[in-house]
Structure formats: structure tokens, C-alpha cells
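Technical appendix A lists one of the benchmark inputs used to test multi-chain prediction within the project. The record comprises two sequence entries:
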Amino acid sequence: MKPSRGIRCVFHICLLAFTAITAFSQEDPGSVSATIGPRGEKLIIARCTVCHSADLITQQRLSRTRWEATVDKMKHWGAEISDQDADLLIRYLSARYHPDAPANLPPLGHEIGKGEPLKQEPQAPLSAIGVAARGAGVFEHNCQACHGGGAMGGMGPRLARNPILKLDDLFRETVLYGRGPMPAWSSMLSEQDIADVREWLLTR
Amino acid sequence: MKGSGELATVSRRRWLKTILGLGAGLVMHPTKFLTWAADMTPASDESKPLTVRVSRPLDAETPAQAFTSFLTPNHQFFVRSHFGPPPAEAIEESQWKLHVGGAVERPNEFTITSLQQFKAVTMTAVLQCSGNGRAYHRPRVPGVQWERGAVGNAQWTGVRLRDVLQAAGIRAEARHVMFQGADRPVVPAVPLFFRSIPLEKALHPDTLLAYEMNGQPLPLLHGAPLRVITPGWMAESCIKWLTHIEARKEEASGYYMQTAYRVPVKSAHTGTGVPDDATAPVEVMPVKSLISSPEDGQSLRAGAAKIQGVAWAGETKIAKVEISFDDGDTWQPAQLVGDDRLYAWRQWQFLWQATVEGTFAIVCRATDERGNVQPAATSWNPSGFLWNGWDRVTVRVHPS
């Protein structure tokens, strides 16, 4: 039985609409990289490399569906990513590390510095006065995974009563720019956050 | 000490970096670093470093050229774990204990010395990561993109798990034996790594609790002070840094038994998920062979050339290895050489009269004593496990 003209017409309209939606939702890998590349990379360094090095990510070549499943799994496993962060990460990862992406991609980090920092807060003066109560929360979400509950140490050194707390500049610089295996946190934490964490650590 | 870099030549299949370096996590534990550094002392100037796939926690594979030797040296043996080694104090000899409990009459605790009251057994066995060769599955699957070297053959010394379980008195309801090590995830929300094996495998006289590897105390990266060895089975059953053994009625719960390390019972439809009830835990290693020499991309002078490699097959022996120069249209038998032992790999060689100049793809495949033949490509599965497709190297023959 041949479909009626009306049904065929509806079908074609649907097909057109579907094509338009698909085209809209598929982002051009190049432009995605330029817009969200730096932010995506910073999220990886701040949120994923707490547990594993970035090379585990950059060797994957996965479809968007698989990236969605992976980011979702990592959220369930304690990655500190908001829904908004997760969205951005999935867009970044599926644009850059898709099944047809070349084997050799520039290493992670080449995008960083090109974009604006993730946090656009007015910079507090260098002598930001820390608030211990707020620092506890900042520590829990950003530092605890490596430095342990109560800052008693874990994969990273114990920070409670650590001599570095007496050296304001060194503490601040270590957090901002990283040191050894510790990643740089300048893109995630504000001067105020850092001061708050230090203030809280001093109470430990 | 952040690791001096050494880039490998980029060849067709080996695009990932080779780093002679340290996993960042190791930098933070001086005691671990020392143990590790001692293990990593090269046996000879020829030995190549491991190819690092993930630098933290360290996952690194052995360059295939190392497989020209029957035993894979400890410093070249592939490294894989979910969370990296536990804190040094957790496995220090004075602190470490093995707890045996669950469905047993007499729960027990052992130190390494008290465990050695049981008869020592030594055996040679292949250890292989289930994901070895994952990089060759299409469509691609997530996970460590292992190529050829997440496998090795070592001599393991330890006591029989059976002896330890029988001393504790296995209760009638026990059907599985669960293992857990001292390694812990960075973030508490990540599931702990514990798995179980069926009682039958646990009571098999060849299943060991090993404290030595190639005649040396078990190195930290390989599970010091004690690990499980389930010969013929994939390595995720060979729990490292072992602290707990539990006899139980049911298979272990948890992510690494019920979700991960499972394969479809029937071959999966490419690219789709399969329902959990249609999967079974990964157990026996399928028949597989590798070419260790010549290397992929190597130039050979025209004349006689030796092609060599290894082949292994889970709980049975290798019957034959064959070589093809025409991508599997015709096959020629290779010669099996060296030690012939169940669970160990078998070395093989093929004398090739490379008289014609040009570029050649050399392919090998093995057949085990049960008649299983290594396939051209392994059927796809969602986690990219059990790859055992034909191995292949491309060489160029130039005038002598």
C-alpha cells in the first residue's frame, strides 16, 4: 500500500526538522575547541586529575554517548563536577577525543592561558582576610580528596600543622601554581578561597 | 624527580608516549619510590623501559621485544592497578596481616612468616590484563588503551590457597572465595576493589598465594607482600596487596564483580550495551600469540631472519603456532621451542628466508590443545576485554 500524499508530506517535514535539530546539536569540533577548550582543560586538571592523571583521558577516542556515560560514572564516584561543568566537559571531550580524532593530539594544557579563568570574581587584595568557617567547605570540595579528611594527609601531604601555613606567600603560590604532582588551582580558587582555606587549616 | 622523558619512535600502532619516568603518586612516597626504583634497575643496557599508559595510578606495559625471554623480568613486567599501591605502612611487615574468614570454621590471621608454615610451591604462569589489546577493538571502548604488552610470564612462589582454606575449615555452604587488598581509592565514593573466584578454582592445587616473583620478594608494584595467582585466568582475579580472604555462599557483590570485568555470554552487537544478566565474569585466558622479534617497523637485511615470539592458552597448552605472509591466506608452521609447561607461555620461532626486498606484514596465530584457534579479530564487547586477534608486525627487507 502506497502512503498517502498527506502522510508523506508530514514525514518529509519531520525529516527536515530532525535534520535541522541534528545539525544544530552537532558542534563543529574546531570551534568547540576554541571556545570551551581552555575551560575544559582546566576542569580536567582541577577535577579529574585528583584521582588519575590526564593521560587516561587523552588516550580515549569515544562517541558522545560514551563520554556522557563516563562523565556520569565519574560524578557518581565523587568527581566534584556541577551539572554545568559536566555539560561543558562532555562537549569538550566529545569534540576533541571523538572516534575519528587523530592519534596524536597536542598535549593537554596547550589551550590553557588562551581563555579567561573559570572564575571571574573581582580579585581580592593580596592581604585577603581568611574566614575559617568558609575555608572548611572550600577545603572539603577541592583539597580533601588528596590531603585527607581533617587535612591529616592522604595521597598528598598532611596540611594540619604543616609549616607551610606559616609562610603565607609560599602557601598561596603552591595553591595557585601547583607543585610537583599537585595541579595548579588558579583557575578554580579565588584569592579569597585560598585565604579561607589557610585560615581554616590554621585552626586544625 | 619528575621523570626524564624519552619519546619512543612513533610507529603505526604505537602512538602513545613512552616515558622513562615515575608515576606522580610515587613521588610523594619516598619509601615506595626506593622500592620501586630498586625493581626498575635494568637487567641489561638493552632492556627498554615500560610504556606508560597512565602515569597515576601507574599503568604501564612491556615492550614486545622483552618477550624474547621465557621469563619476563620484574622490572619489565607490566603494571596495572585501580588505585596504585597502598600506603607503605599498610603493608609493612610488622603491620601487615592476612585475615581469613567468612564461611569457615576457624577464622584466622597470618603474618608472612606464619603463612610460610604451609608448603612452598613454585610455578611459572602467564599473567595478563583482561584489557590487553583493548586499543584494537572497534568501535573503540573506554579504558586504558593497552596494545600488546599488558602480559608477562613469571615464576611465582607461595603457598596453596587450598591449604590455607582447609586449615580454616571451609563450611559446606561456601561456594566462592573473595579477595581484597590494602589498596584504596583517593575518593571514598569510588568502589573498593574486591572480587571473588568460584570455590573450585580456589581449591585447585595450582592456585597460589604468592610472596615471590622470579625468585625475588614480591615487588611493591606487583602486590607486596602477597598476591593471589589464579594460573590460566585473567589477572583481575590475582588480587595484589592481599589482606582479606573470605569464603562465601554468593559471588562477591560490588562494581568490580557485578559490573566491570564481565563479558557477554553471547557475542555483543557491535556498539550496543548488553543487559547485565547476559554477561559472565571474565575468567580463563583465550589462546593468543605475539611476535617479539622482529619489531614492528624494523628494517632487515635480505637473507635468513629469525621470527620469534610466545603463545599461551589459559588452562591448556599450545598445540601449534603458524605464520602467514599473506594476511592469513596461507599459513606455515612455526617451531615450538623451550620449556613446555601448563600455564606458562610457549616460545616459538620461524626461520624466514627473506630473499625478496620489500615490505612484509608478518602475522601469527596459535592453536591450543583443545582446538581453539586464535581469530583474526576478537568479537567486540562493551569493555574491550579478551582481545586475542592475530598479532602482526610490518618489516622492510632491504638489500644486504
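The domain at 88-129+149-264+273-281 of chain B is CATH 3.90.420.10 (Sulfite Oxidase; Chain A, domain 2). The CA atoms of residues 46 and 66 of chain B lie 9 Å apart. Comparable benchmark entries are summarised in Table A2.
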